[in-house]
Each structure stands twice: as structure tokens, then as C-alpha cells.
Amino acid sequence: MIKRRACILLFFTAFVVSAFKIQTEVEEYEAKAAFIYNFTKFVEWEDNTMNGTPSFNIGVLGESPIIRPLQELAFNKKINNKKIMIVRYKTVSEIRGCHILFIPENTQEDIIKELAQSAGLKSTLLITEKHGELESGSAINFLIVNNKIRFEINMNSLNKNKIKASSQLLKLAMNIKN
Amino acid sequence: MGFLTNISINRKLILMQLTTAIVVIVLCSVIFVMIDYKAMKESKVRSISSIAQVLGTNTIAPILFGDAEAAYENLTDLNVETNITNASVIDTTGKVFASYTREGAEPYAFQYQPERIASYKFSDDDLLIYSKIKNHGEWVGTICLKVDLSDIQGQLYKKIRLALGIVVIAALLAYFLAYFLQKYISKPITDLVTVMEQVMESGNYSLRSKFKGKDEVAKLSMAFNKMIGEIQHHDQVLSETNNQLERRVEERTLELREKNEKLVAAKALAEQSKTVKEQFLASMSHEIRTPLNAILGFQELLKETPLTAEQKEYVESVDFAGKNLLVIINDILDLSKIEAGKFVFEETEFNLDEIIKSVIELVEYRSYEKNLSLSLEIDAAIPKSLMGDSARLSQILLNLIGNAIKFTEKGQVMISADLLEETSTDVKCKFTVRDTGIGIPKDKIKMIFERFTQASSDTTRKYGGTGLGLTIVQQLVELQGGSIDVESEVGKGSSFSFHLRFKKTVGGQEKISQSDQRITANPNVRYRVLLAEDIPLNQRLVQKIMMKWQFSLDIANNGAEAIEKLKKNNYDLILMDIQMPEIDGYTATKIIRAMEDPVKKDIPIIAITAHASNSEAEKCINIGMNAYISKPFNAGNLKKIILQLMSKTKPESHKLVKESAENNGQFSLDYLTEHADGDNEFIIEMISLFLKDVPVALSRLWNAIEAADYTAIKTYAHSMKGLFLTLGISETGLVIKAIEKSAERKASIDEIILKYKEIEAMYEEVKDPLRIEIEKLNKKN
């Protein structure tokens, strides 16, 4: 019973990211998963096909420690009243119909460029976690500053994919690239 | 509240209105200020809440992304809101996410418990506002603001000041309004009161109160005017009735006066007839007494002449009947006076001893005749000097003693006076007359006090009397508030006792004893007497008596002749008849008292009258006579009066004094002389016996006193008493009696010694005069 109540509480409260410094890799990816969830609240997809899907799809390319916290999130939460689906892709060609695509650190830089050009990634929010990825065409890139998770935004990438970010989100971004 | 009832009505009205106005204004002000203050607070809450909401929305993203700096930056935007001193963002776990404090303000630690605390809270000077931050229905955190309320408090004070100002202005306004408006109510009332006061002060019921309108005060004025009108009307009616009443009273008074006058006239008539009756009684007694006097006088003279036994018996019968007649007349007169209520009891100072002794002297000769012993005992405790009617006391005693002697053939008559009660003002005495006579049967005791009743019909025949004596005695005793008692046994004797109350004399000063004075007059002096009397019968009677006493007598046939004789000759005394032709006794006395010769003008005058009333006696004394004797008089009484009077007059007027006794007044040889019957040897013998026995008796008494032997004291004192009494030293007799009584109750020896010294002193005093007396008597022989 206690467990269940805790679950409900978790469901209704925001996925607030700890303001304290992260120590471990697990902490780091839990925080990043939370960030991803929170981004959905300040971002709007203008493409109607994306809004018409029965589920909210979050794709992860290759292997990453983020998968576990993301699956937990999908189990506990809904986004825009839609079930969250975590989709794992091995190759770029597999990628289709994702609202958000997370590209882990170990992925090649070229692949990101390729992805940016791909028509299959039209209206997908591309999130990376490597310094300089923003240049390759990623929309949001995670940074770790003073052991704290921060992010930077590429407005071009957002506009190209017909995604609108709220001013509040922009305010919090470390860098904004036009 | 007492204050309120005492102030005038216009002040009351002003006060009332002022109070009402102030209360209302203050109440309104307070309510408005309170409502205003509440509205201010509410608007403050609203405005700050909207700020919190905006701020909260802006802080969603920083919270969600854990960006505290961004959150703080948002909070610093509150700089523009100068009232907000502190702000904090608290996350869902209760941790402070970001905190802001205005410059110069104190830091504040918000403590937010979402379930318990209201979204805003007023503390002393601050307002705390908690606003939940929600993102798409999800609770993200809470924004907390602390607001300084000094600005709205400042506004509150401003408004209170304003309200106070309004109150003051309104009160002033209310006062002026009340001051002007109250006149409409109070003025008519004060006017009415003024009129009322005028009416009360002046009693002028024609005054009226002026009024206007139809309000209650006007009605009051109207009612007052009506009431005053009624009173005026009633007043008039009343005064008319009063006048009528007065007239009627006058009429009645007049009637009453007339009736009164009639009554007075009737009373005068009644009194006149009463006087006529009294005059009739008085003159009748005079008319009867004058011839009776002659009868008794000549009968007495007749007795002295040689008579046969038969003649003597007749003469004695005449004597008996005559005296009886005299008693009847006197008694009837007394009784008629008592019944007329005319008996007035005098209150003069008298000596009880003397009164009793003088009564005894009057009857003594009768007891000698019958060979009865007559004893007297007077309680020494009775004050010598008392106030009361001595004449009536004498009369009562005379009657009782006279009866006792009359009804006793042999044995004795004992008279005693005892003290029953003594208070500070008066004494109650009991007088007892006891005899060994024939006694009264039990069933007759009550009867004897009834008038004209005696114990038996035989009594009158044998003893004479009217049966009035005891009636009079009883009346006299009861009229003085006393009572009379009789104890009697047939054949053994009777005892009459009565109680009387006398006042004590105020000063306690004893009157100079009359008996002492009497002793100073020598019975052996040959006085020159002038008799003024028109009736030859009475002239002869007096002549005989005077001859017997060896007095020289001159006779005047009327008042004028008496005055002439007095002018020519010297007399010691005048016997003056009251009713005489030409100049009567009264006029003659007046002329004599007005004479120039100082000796003759003061000559003692004794009135002889047939009128036996008190008023007559008083008249005699008032006119200037010295004494009074009523016809028929007893020769002994007359002599006593003469001796009393002569002892008072100056010695140089006694021209024919045979010898002068150097008696200083302590003793009297009367008793001895009387008993000696001319036997001087007997007197000498008695005096010698006294001089010899007294010293012996005194020394025996002294020894007894020293031995404190009370029985012996009593016996010796008693045996001494006779010695002194024989020589008439009654004073010492009383002292001895007092010693006896003291010894009886075993009083202190000192007291007895004091009395003993008195006796001794008396003996020393009389010793020498008595020796001189013996020498004188020897010379006579």
C-alpha cells in the first residue's frame, strides 16, 4: 500500500531535477531522463502527424545507461495524455516516427550529421550529449558544468524540424545557437 | 443617575441629544474604519496573490530544471514591489529552492506545510502569502511572500484621525442643534413651572399659564389652568363656607354666653341658699349655745353651793344632759360640714407629743374622777415636728379617749402612737386607744360607726352621747386618707386604732415647744382681766371663774365701754365677746390695735364667741385677736389659753406678779401642783426625792453601761424615767425611752453613752433651779 501511494504521488508531482551536484553515472542519466521528460512541457510539435500518434515515442540510438531511467519514466508517466514508448534503434535507417531521439555520447559524429539531413527525422527533437554536437545539427545538447547538468539549444535545428520552444526554456539554456 | 434627576430639563435634553449623536457617530466611524481596513487588507491579499501567481509561473521551468540561479533571478524582479520584504521558493519536498530578502530587511524562514496552512495569513505587522506553483495541474513547488503592512496601517491611522475629526465636528453641530431645538420643549415647561411657583408663593389663584399649540406640554398647561381654576373656585366656596361657619359660631357663642349667664345666676342663687343654710346653722348653734352656756355655767356654780343629796343628784342630771346637748350640737355642726364637703384640712407644723398631751390634759380630770389610770406611750422614732391638721388630730383623739374613759368603769386607758413607715418626705403613724371598759359585741362593731347609733339603746341612757362621735372620727380619718380599726371583747375592753400619714417638716427645725413656753408663765400670778360682755349671765359666770383663780376682773358692757376702760386702767388681758351692742368685738379689737399706747395696743385679747366654726376663728385671728374660745367654754381650757398667752407677753406688763420663779423652762411643777392639791409639803418632798434619787440612778445606769449589760441598762433606765416625768422634764423622759429601745435592740454602747450624757447634763441644769424652788415653797409655808 505504501509503495502504491508513493507511486501515485510520484505520478502527480513534477519530475523535478535535483539542484544538487551529480556524483555518479546513474545519477547523471536519471537527471538527463528527467530533463528529457521536462523538455516536453516547454516544447510544441507543430507537425500534426506527430500529434496524431497514439503514443509519445522516445527513441534511443544504440546502447546507453539512459535507457533504464527512461523506461522507469515511461512506466510512471504520460506526456500530453499519451503513453510513453521507449524505442531502441541499432541503425539510423530503423529510425521512424520518433518525437524525441536521444543520441548517446559514443555515437559517431558523422551519424549525427547524417541524421540531421535524413527525411525520416523530420519533426523529431534531436538530443545529444557531446560537446560540439550542436554544430552537427542537434537541437538540444547536454553539458556538465560544475557537476551540474546544463543544456544548450540550436534554434535552427528546432525551426527546421517545426518544433517551438517556450521562452522559459530558452531562458534556461546556456547557449542558444541561431 | 441621581445627577440626571437634579439637572434642569433643557440640560437634560441637550445631554440626551448630544449623547445620542456622539454614540451614533462613533459607532458609524468605527464600523466604517473597520470595513475599510478589511477591504484594504483583502485588496492587498489579492494584489500580492496575483504577483505570486505570475512569479510562480515564471519559476516553473527553473524548478523543473533545478536552476536555482534562474529562480533567484526571477525573485529579484520583486524589487519593484517595495512592500514585499521576503520571498522564497519551496519545492515539493519542503526544501527552500531559492530565497530573496529585500535590502535592509530581516531574513525570514518560511515554513510551509501545504495541508495545514491557509494560503494567506496576517501576523502583527505582516501578511504571509503562500501560492502553489502548478504546471499542467502538476504541483511543482510553492512560492512564499512576506508583505510589510505598514502602508495600510498608516492609512488606517489616517482614517481614524479623520473619523475623530468628524466626531468632534458632529458633536459640536449636535450641541448647537440641540441647544436651539430643545427650547421648543423646555421653554413651555419652564414657563409653566414659573407660573406654578408664582402661584405657590403668592397664593394668587387667578394667575394662568400661557401656551401655544396642541402638544403634551400645551395639554399640561391647559390642565394646570383648569386645575387652578377649580382651586380658585373651591377657595371661594371655602371662604364663603368659612364666613358662614364663623357667623354660626358667633351665634352659638352668643347663645352659650346667655346660657352661661343664666347658669352663673343659678349657681349664685344656689350658693346663696347654701350660705343661708350655713348661716342658719351657725346662728342656730349660737342661739342654742348662749343659753346653754349660761345653764352649764350656773349649774357648775350651783354644784359648789351646799346642796342636799337630792338636789345634788338633780344638778348632776342637768349637768349631764346639758353637756350631752353641747356635744350633740357640736357633732351636728361638724357632720353637716363634712357632708357639705366643706371640711378643709389644714397643713401646719405641729408637735405630735404636745397635741397628744394637750388632749390628755383635757380629759385627764375625768379619768381622775373615775379613778382610771391614763398612760401614754409615744414612739421616740416619730419626728417631733410634723405637718398636718393638728386640730383634727386632737378632735379624733379627744373623741376616742373620751369614749374610752366614758365606757370604762375601772382599770386603765392606754394611748400609744407608733411609727409604721418613714420615707424621706412623710411618716405613717398608728394611734391606738385601748381601754378595759365594757367592750362592744362583735355584731355591733360595724354599727357603731353609723350615725345616731350606739352599741345598745341602754348606752345612751347610761352614758349619754349622740352616736355621732365615731361617725365623725371615721369621716375625719378617712378624709385624710387613713383608716380606722376596732378590736373589742365584751367585758374586757376595746381597742380603737387608726393610721394617718403626716408630712415631715422641710427644714427639720423644731418649733419652739409650746409647753416649754407655757411653763415660763407662772400660774400663781394674779392677772388683771377686762371682760367685754353684754349678757349679765355670762358676766357673772366669768366673774365666778376669775374669783376662783384669784384674778382681778373688770367688766365692760360693750365694746365702747371696754375701750374706755382700757384707756383709763392697766390690764393684762381682755376677754372679748364678739356679739355686743354699739361696738362689737371685731370693731373694738380693731380700735384697740390702732391705739397709740405701745403696751395697751398689744394687749392680749381672747375672743369669746358662740360661733363654733373655723372661719369664725380665722376671722378673729386675722382681725388681731390672740386667741379664741367658743361658748360654752371649759374653765380649764380658758386658763390654759390665758397662761399660754401671758407667757408670750413681756414680763414688765405683769404688774401683779407675786413671785417670779427662776425656772429656766426645763421642768414643770404643773403635774405635782395638780396632784398636791395645795399641799406644798408634797411638792417639796417630791423634788427632794428627785434630787436624791437621780444621782444614784445615774451612777447605777453608768455602771451598767460600762459593763455593757443591756438588760441592766434597760431596767435602770426604765426606773429613772418616772423621776423625770414627774417633774415634767419630758425631753429627758424621751431620751431615757430611747436608751431603753437602744438597749433592747443591743445598739452600740457609744450611742447609749451619748444619750446618758444628755440625761446627766439635764440633771446638772435643773438641779439648782429645783433647789431654789424648794426654798421658795418653804418660804410660802
For the terminal residues of chain B, how far apart are their CA atoms?
119 Å
Mean pLDDT of chain B: 82
* Total helical segments of chain A: 8
Instruction: Give the oligomeric state.
Output: heterodimer
**What would CATH call the architecture of chain A?**
3-Layer(aba) Sandwich
Order of helices and strands of chain A: HHEHEHEEEHEHEEHEHE
Q: What percentage of residues of chain B falls in helices of 4 or more residues?
A: 55-70%
- The fraction of residues in strands of chain A falls at 25-35%
Coarse morphology of chain B: elongated
The low-confidence parts of chain B are 508-521, 650-662
Mean pLDDT of chain A, as a whole number? Answer: 81
Structural class of chain B: alpha/beta
Work out the helix count of chain B.
23
| Structural class determined from secondary elements of chain A | alpha/beta
Q: Give the % helix of chain A.
A: 25-40%
Structure description:
The complex is a heterodimer of chains A (178) and B (781). With 178 residues, chain A is an alpha/beta fold. Chain A has a single domain (2-177), classed as Rossmann fold, CATH 3.40.50. Chain A has eight helices and ten strands. In chain A, a hairpin with a 2-residue loop joins strand 7 and strand 8 (148-154). In chain A, helix 2 (25-39) crosses helix 4. Chain B has 781 residues and is of the alpha/beta class. Chain B folds into four domains: 2-181, PAS domain (Beta-Lactamase, 2-Layer Sandwich); 344-510, Histidine kinase-like ATPase, C-terminal domain (Heat Shock Protein 90); 517-660, Response regulator (Rossmann fold, 3-Layer(aba) Sandwich), CATH 3.40.50; 673-780, Up-down Bundle (Four Helix Bundle (Hemerythrin (Met), subunit A)), CATH 1.20.120.160. Chain B has 23 helices and 17 strands. Chain B has helices spanning 2-6, 9-64, 68-76, 150-181, 183-202, 216-304, 309-339, 352-369, 390-406, 457-463, 469-479, 514-520, 536-549, 559-568, 585-593, 598-601, 614-623, 635-648, 670-676, 680-706, 710-726, 730-744, 749-780, and strands at 84-91, 96-101, 120-122, 126-135, 138-148, 348-351, 373-378, 385-388, 412-422, 426-435, 483-489, 493-504, 528-532, 552-556, 573-577, 605-609, 627-630. In chain B, the strands form three sheets. In chain B, strands 6, 7, 8, 9, 10, 11 and 12 form a seven-stranded mixed β-sheet that branches. In chain B, strands 2-1-5-4-3 form a five-stranded antiparallel β-sheet. In chain B, helix 8 packs parallel to helix 9. The radius of gyration of chain B is 63 Å and the shape is elongated. The two termini of chain B are 119 Å apart.
